[in-house]
Amino acid sequence: MVPASVVPPQPPDPPSKPVPAKDSATVALVRDADGSGVEVFLQRRVRTMAFASGMTVFPGGGVDARDADASVGWVGPPATLWARWFSCSEPLARALVCAVVREAFEESGVLLAGTASTVVSDTSVFADARRALISGELSLAKFLSDAGLMLRADLLRPWANWVTPEDEPRRYDARFFVAALPEGQTADGATTEAESTYWQRPADAIADAEAGRAALMPPTWHTLTEIGRFASVKDVLACERTIRRIMPRLVWNGDRVVVEL
């Protein structure tokens, strides 16, 4: 159960029929914290956003049609394996992995790409490409091809599948990934979608939500709780996951909302 204070209010007029859920992908970037445990990279979304305004989230977004481009250079588990993990078609699995790599780069500057033997450590040389990706002028496949890079699917791990409740006007079928911050790279706040970005221990992020200093949606809250149990990034990445589709229900109990998973 998640406290009502961390979920958005129920829409006054829910759709008469559920809106189709748009495929999307999000990634919890993790790094080892000083002492023990891990930190996650979080963004507080600007309040002008149509979805999850003001919420604290992980980088991510909707799948673009061009994310399914099969020509993208690829290192790591093939799309067939991602399709098995996320219980979806192979083309969608490929698009989800490409989308999460693209969104991570657009929203945080972290690029999960490289050659077959190395991972990019300096992303500053791709600043122009990042802007072109954000504007839609450039596809991920074209960017990687022009830069002589390949997508590094081996840096990602499948984590969860959360679907927006049926009574919401905007719905997403979101696949959650985890990835370690690549050595030498820096996650930044250079995105118009966030008013602030920061690294934080999962327990501290949850404490902020409980104290009313931040707002978390149920999937973010749940993911932070799970990641916070691990002592290191190595342990997070080694965790074997069975992905099941979770669609929370928002149930009104008097003047409070109870989230049922």
Automatic annotation (TrEMBL):
<keyword id="KW-0464">Manganese</keyword>
<dbReference type="InterPro" id="IPR039121">
    <property type="entry name" value="NUDT19"/>
</dbReference>
<feature type="compositionally biased region" description="Pro residues">
    <location>
        <begin position="1"/>
        <end position="18"/>
    </location>
</feature>
<keyword id="KW-0460">Magnesium</keyword>
<dbReference type="InterPro" id="IPR015797">
    <property type="entry name" value="NUDIX_hydrolase-like_dom_sf"/>
</dbReference>
<dbReference type="InterPro" id="IPR000086">
    <property type="entry name" value="NUDIX_hydrolase_dom"/>
</dbReference>
<keyword id="KW-0378">Hydrolase</keyword>
<dbReference type="GO" id="GO:0016818">
    <property type="term" value="F:hydrolase activity, acting on acid anhydrides, in phosphorus-containing anhydrides"/>
</dbReference>
<protein>
    <submittedName>
        <fullName>NUDIX family protein</fullName>
    </submittedName>
</protein>
<feature type="domain" description="Nudix hydrolase">
    <location>
        <begin position="20"/>
        <end position="222"/>
    </location>
</feature>
<feature type="region of interest" description="Disordered">
    <location>
        <begin position="1"/>
        <end position="22"/>
    </location>
</feature>
<keyword id="KW-0479">Metal-binding</keyword>
<dbReference type="GO" id="GO:0046872">
    <property type="term" value="F:metal ion binding"/>
</dbReference>
